[in-house]
Amino acid sequence: MTTDQLQAHFDTKIEADISIEAKDWMPDAYRQNLIRQIGQHAHSEVVGMLPEANWITRAPTLRRKAVLLAKVQDEAGHGLYLYSAAETLGCTRQDIYQKLLDGTMKYSSIFNYPTLSWADIGVIGWLVDGAAIVNQVALCRASYGPYARAMVKICKEESFHQRQGYEAVMALSKGNKAQRDMLQDAINRFWWPTLMMFGPNDSDSPNSAQSMAWKIKRFSNDELRQKFIDNTVPQLEALGMTAPDPELVWDETTGHYHFGEINWDEFYQVLKGQGICNYERLEAKRRAWDNGKWVREAASVHAKKIAARKQAA
Ligand code: BYC
């Protein structure tokens, strides 16, 4: 087939909602855009382990510690599914991981904020995983099959994460004044950064139009952000807590909550590496990479030995 015929076949499949699979022909720009998004997504999962891991040794009870440990392990698993999905597009895991370490590939801005109290762990589960679910449920219908299928399993686990977060914040909301103040402080610090997770406003989102035409993204950044706010404000009210947004109000005419302007300067500063924890996060990942050198070497020697044994047999 000529390139034009291959392109026409690809377009027909996108139009008909037929998944694109790893061995199918796809335009190079589609492939590169997926490597970018899936790679960033994978990096977010593994960098996202760091702020939560910070509290494993300080969880208030053994039950909370076991649950948090399991959650952080789930995030590593999500990273693995996503790196595997990216590899089906022809990149190597090592290559895109190096791009994370040298700062040429992004990860979610949210993980550049510190976890200062136990309440932050509950709020991350509730708000950050809650935002991730809203974004990722839509990605379960992404046009690229391996990405969409990875998202199905990830979403199931994220739902559990969101529930554990809400259960933890519910306990704090029913606690004493110090516990309620700690929770309110965590909400105040994480509210706006959570809204930034959905990316820039649609008018400033360079990738959205093409990603939506290719049905990688099914909803725009602003649509998903609004959906998250509409879902979350009733939960906030049920906790007896408030959002740090004086403009947050139910709008009868639109049938949605109206909310204030996000501080986009802060968002772009964090993307440029100027967030509170950017340096610390990448340093932790670089250190882990260096410390893991002997494991990688031992594993590759073992793999070579097995291959040689198979060849000899
Ligand atoms: N942070 O054109 P746009 C989790 C970048 S992990 C950093 O709208 P796009 C969890 C964007 O990449 C969940 N960068 O982009 C884990 C682009 O830059 P490049 C993480 C951001 O791709 C552990 C530029 O800004 N979820 O839940 O169409 C523990 C312009 O943006 C951000 C995902 O990764 C940001 N927030 O849309 C707990 C979801 N926003 O690449 C929890 C998968 C934007 O052109 N990703 N940028 O240099 C997506 O759905 C989309 O990539 C986005 C952005 C909606 C995030």
UniProtKB/TrEMBL annotation:
**GO molecular function terms listed in the Swiss-Prot or TrEMBL record:** phenylacetyl-CoA 1,2-epoxidase activity
**Organism superkingdom:** Bacteria
GO CC term, one of those recorded: cytosol
From the UniProt annotation, give the residues forming the signal peptide.
Answer: none
A GO BP term here is: phenylacetate catabolic process
* One Pfam family of this chain: PaaA_PaaC
List, alphabetically, the SUPFAM superfamilies matched: Ferritin-like
Q: Which NCBIfam families match?
A: PA_CoA_Oxy1 (TIGR02156)
Q: PANTHER family in the record, alphabetically?
A: 1,2-PHENYLACETYL-COA EPOXIDASE, SUBUNIT A, PHENYLACETIC ACID DEGRADATION PROTEIN PAA
> Which protein are we looking at?
Phenylacetate-CoA oxygenase subunit PaaA
> Taxonomically, what lineage is the organism?
Bacteria, Pseudomonadati, Pseudomonadota, Gammaproteobacteria, Enterobacterales
- Encoded by which gene? paaA
